[in-house]
Known about the structure:
homodimer; mainly alpha; Arc Repressor Mutant, subunit A; 3 strands; elongated; DNA-binding
Amino acid sequence: MAIATRAGSRDAELSTPAYVVLGMVRLGARSGYEIKQAVDQSIRFFWTISQVQIYPSLAKLERAGLISGRSEPQGRRPRRVYEITKAGVTALEGWVRRPGDMPFELRDIGLVKLFFADVLETTDALELVQAVRRRSEERVELLRLIEPTAHDAEAVGDVYPLLTLRIGIRFHEAMIDVCHEFETRFR
Amino acid sequence: MAIATRAGSRDAELSTPAYVVLGMVRLGARSGYEIKQAVDQSIRFFWTISQVQIYPSLAKLERAGLISGRSEPQGRRPRRVYEITKAGVTALEGWVRRPGDMPFELRDIGLVKLFFADVLETTDALELVQAVRRRSEERVELLRLIEPTAHDAEAVGDVYPLLTLRIGIRFHEAMIDVCHEFETRFR
DNA sequence: ATGTGCATGTAAATTGTTACATGATTCA
DNA sequence: TGAATCATGTAACAATTTACATGCACAT
């Protein structure tokens, strides 16, 4: 997937997932479990992370002094909670600031099928276009459900989650538009 | 990456990359080398494939009777060229037609950074927004260069490449819009 | 008492990439 | 004759997912 890690300084060894974990800790996710939830509720539309990747990342970040953790069991259930350190904030700032390599990687079987849709009879092809359009319509609905949360964050000073949400919505609206155009044109 | 392969029939064992190869053979790419080129010149914006994956896919497709190959060396340089069989066309039709599972998978470090951009000072954050906007502007320019080719294909009856191209352009135009909006709002 | 959520972890499998290797043809 | 392009291949590696495993806490 060619995720760039290289950087100028000593944090060259930190991977993108590690920075994602760091960012989520900064936003208030305390345990590995909470980080997974936070990702699934926010950036999952442009970045996913599996539970398995989180715990090694946390350990690495702690070794690097970017987060500090302490055991805080809930009763007899073990739990380790973390908070970001000053060094961690600096490292996160540095990563976010340097534009570096930001590949836009899209992998969409739907678009691949559309690209090849000329094999099909017109009606079948239009059904595929419809299916893709509906998929985006559902996605827009889903994203609209998140909007209130993003507005809450904006009120507290975190304005950028709203920006990424807007982009997601506009994205799929664009897809809906183009599909609709073709549907009316070839029906 | 959770790419679904399951299907109802006997071609359940064919992966998405294999269908991509099949589709490209149908569109006239003859050798493995040409397939790689075709992918890089068309669907690379929503699907990539490395050279290494192509040759095993070709072998598998041939064993399944979906393409037929013959050795056609160029002088002393070995080369194997393929064409799609009737069974291959049927299989491709079936795959394209069934909507099945079409996950829209986006992985974009740029958007991740934007999401976390509230760590930065306003000016630094706006620079990041600009960088993301410029990236999309470049992408739109690149896609516009392909437009003539897609129009040529349309004239010959392959209209769907143009649809996917349009979607790509509108995608990035949407991104540019939202970025611009935020730039003027917070400058 | 039982199901759902919290919390972490291991092992195996899959998927895909990078780097390397080889050699022929074509065109300037 | 040297560089770019055509053409295929192997080996090692990196990233990520799936499946499995465990057990407590809490509310009904």
